[in-house]
Every structure is written in C-alpha cells, then in structure tokens.
Amino acid sequence: QVQLVESGGGLVQPGGSLRLSCATSGGPFSISTMGWYRQAPGKERELVATISSGGTPYYTESVRGRFTISRDKGKNTVYLQMSSLKPEDTAVYYCYRASGAYWGQGTQVTVSS
Hints:
Layout: E1 3-7, E2 10-12, E3 18-25, E4 34-39, E5 46-51, E6 57-59, E7 67-72, E8 77-82, E9 91-97, E10 102-103, E11 107-111
Parallel strand pairs: 2-11
Antiparallel strand pairs: 1-3, 3-8, 4-5, 4-9, 5-6, 7-8, 9-10, 9-11
C-alpha cells in the first residue's frame, strides 16, 4: 500500500522560511519522479516543483529562486525548502508521486503577518 505523508506546514510571516517533507512508503520511490503541488482557496491545484529520479529539478516560474526541491532516496523522502515566502504562497501543499499517480493528504502553509 502506497502512502505519502506530508509534514512541515504552518504559519509563517512574509519573508520567512519553511521546509516541507513528504515521507513515502509502499512503492518504487527511487525510480519515480516526485513533485509538490499547491491549491489556494478558490483556485485550481497547480504544480510547484518536480524532481526526477536522477535529481533534476523543475520549478514553476513564481517560485523559482525561492524554493528548492530535493530528495533523499535512503529515507524515501522528498523535501521542499521554501524561502522568502509571500502571502500568495498560502495554500495547501500536496506531495505527488508520478509512478502510479499517488497524492498525499496535504499540509497547510499560511503566510501572513
């Protein structure tokens, strides 16, 4: 049974940082592209970043230079380091595993003063 469990969300002031984690189990983590998506209230879910099995990252334009995606194959975990956070980054962040199209339950990130 595949499970993706996100953690690390919370409330942070503008300009602050957070690190999200996604621990996976039950599947071929090391060979799957992993990703982070987010969904703000009233908006569609959007891609934030992906990382290939070989470690190649991709970022959507709005987070490039502020967010960093990484993965630890030994821990079957993918991370999203978020810096210089803005109020418009407020959303529920979801972890995604491309192999099999699995989603985590989401973690809330709120950027507010």
